[in-house]
From TrEMBL:
This is Adenosylhomocysteinase. NAD(+) binds at residues 150-152, 184, 213-218, 236, 271, 292-294, 339. Binds 1 NAD(+) per subunit. Belongs to the adenosylhomocysteinase family. Its EC number is 3.13.2.1. Pfam families: AdoHcyase (PF05221), AdoHcyase_NAD (PF00670). Pathway: Amino-acid biosynthesis; L-homocysteine biosynthesis; L-homocysteine from S-adenosyl-L-homocysteine: step 1/1. InterPro entries: Adenosylhomocyst_ase-like_sf (IPR042172), Adenosylhomocysteinase-like (IPR000043), Ado_hCys_hydrolase_NAD-bd (IPR015878), NAD(P)-bd_dom_sf (IPR036291), S-Ado-L-homoCys_hydrolase_CS (IPR020082). Its cofactor is NAD(+). CDD domains: SAHH (cd00401). It comes from Actinomadura miaoliensis. Substrate binds at residues 52, 124, 179, 183. Residues 184-345 form the S-adenosyl-L-homocysteine hydrolase NAD binding domain. Keywords: Cytoplasm, Hydrolase, NAD, One-carbon metabolism.
Length: 417
């Protein structure tokens, strides 16, 4: 039995889902293929993901492949109640998600999704898998394998595997080129700045934007902030990534120094306390704080609360913290994912590739799970290549192919220079 806010919102949800579907041609092609091949026939899937119109496209594709799907929200602030209603009423999925639910409701929904006894699990941040391995070990026996689609989640899975705690194979869908190169770089880059602008109506041109982390998400953020006229400062702990940022022309500084002159701060690291009390203590009046990492721990919100003498909601998804010395710091989306809480997340055209990776990986796992050990695995290269090929075709872009002679040359060691 689903748990959603208002089933009467289904009509509006269907309209939005159909609009997103127009920009997801790769997933549409896979859905049509799945409807014929039925690679997931009889399988139960439990997913903990953002309940958005794009995710609805993935759920419908899995259903076309023969799966029954139970969906819980991976972030209460990103849940679209009309999408949840449409998935339940019009598309026959089980959904456990309400916009703005509290922490207790969040985990209750994860438990409800798991109680369907899934064969496969899809996670966005590893909370569902973590719950299986801590509170619901009684259900692990039915799970054959799963997928994780975030950097943060993959980090947690690798640690579980390192400690020997992981009980079934998980595939790092996040690590495919068509996911992290495009979703993280182009999707996060655009949607995060979209969320910041919607929440604040600030002009980024001329501002100093400090970006914590120069992985694929950080790169996309830095590129797009510079394109909007901002002065970009990057903070990093990895010498190679810091060097990459510097050679691309970005200023690279420790957060302690950047904190003194930044106007907008964006975290995208997958770690906690990236913006800590000592940084908050030296920020200028009016500084804007936004998080684009998965969990709301990258900005130390508790430290910010301790420093504040007053807190005001100045705009939707924007809270102004007034400090004892009169400085005002503006926290967006309560420190949660700003692109999904204050905007609409990645454009559907980006999620088209990410969810195509998910769908094809699920179909592969339906049979391949028996050959995999309880570890973190990579998506087969041919799946990544197929998604890119379908995307190029949908864009009417053609590329070259190797001749027989070129193929022979690449696979021979006998031919010299």
């Amino acid at each position: 039995m689903s748990d959603i806010a208002d089933e009467s919102l289904a009509y509006e949800g269907v309209k939005r889902i159909e609009w997103a579907d127009r920009a997801m041609p790769v997933l549409r092609q896979i859905r049509e293929r799945f409807a014929v091949e039925r690679p997931l026939a009889g399988m139960r899937v439990a997913a903990c993901m953002h309940v958005t119109t794009e995710t609805a496209g993935l759920i419908r594709t899995l259903q076309a492949g023969g799966a029954s799907v139970a969906l819980a929200a991976s972030n209460p602030l990103s849940t679209q109640d009309d999408t949840a209603a449409a998935l339940v009423r019009e598309y026959g999925a089980e959904v456990f998600a309400r916009a703005g639910t509290d922490r207790e409701g969040y985990y209750r929904h994860i438990h409800q999704a798991l109680e369907t006894g899934p064969d496969l699990v899809l996670d966005d941040g590893c909370d569902l898998v973590n719950t299986l391995h801590t509170d619901r070990t009684d259900l692990i026996g039915t799970v054959r394998a799963g997928c994780e689609q975030t950097t943060t989640g993959v980090i947690r899975l690798h640690q579980m595997a390192l400690e020997g705690a992981l009980r079934f194979p998980m595939v790092a869908v996040n690590d495919t080129d068509t996911k992290h190169m495009f979703d993280n770089r182009y999707g996060t880059g655009q949607s995060t700045l979209d969320g910041i602008v919607r929440a604040t109506n600030t002009l980024l041109a001329g501002k100093t934007v400090v970006i914590a982390g120069f992985g694929y998400c950080g790169r996309g953020l830095a590129e797009r902030a510079r394109g909007l006229g901002a002065r970009v400062v990057v903070t990093e702990i990895d010498p190679v990534k810091a060097l990459d940022a510097a050679l691309q022309g970005f200023a690279v500084q420790p957060m302690a120094r950047a904190a003194e002159h930044g106007d907008v701060f964006i975290t995208a690291t997958g770690n906690r306390d990236v913006v800590a009390a000592e940084h908050l203590a030296v920020m200028k009046d009016g500084a804007i704080l936004a998080n684009s990492g998965h969990f709301d721990v990258e900005i130390d919100v508790r430290a910010l609360q301790d420093l504040a003498v007053e807190v005001h909601r100045v705009r939707p998804q924007a809270d102004e913290y007034v400090l004892a010395d009169g400085r005002r710091l503006v926290l967006l989306a309560e420190g949660r994912l700003v692109n999904l809480a204050a905007a609409e997340g990645h454009p559907a055209a980006v999620m088209d590739m990410s969810f195509a990776d998910q769908a094809l990986t699920c179909a592969w796992l339906a049979t391949a799970h028996a050959t995999l050990d309880a570890a973190v695995h990579q998506v087969p290269k041919e799946i990544d290549t197929e998604v890119a090929r379908l995307k190029l075709a949908s864009m009417t872009i053609e590329i070259d192919t190797l001749t027989a002679e070129q193929e022979e040359y690449l696979h021979s060691w006998r031919l010299g220079s």
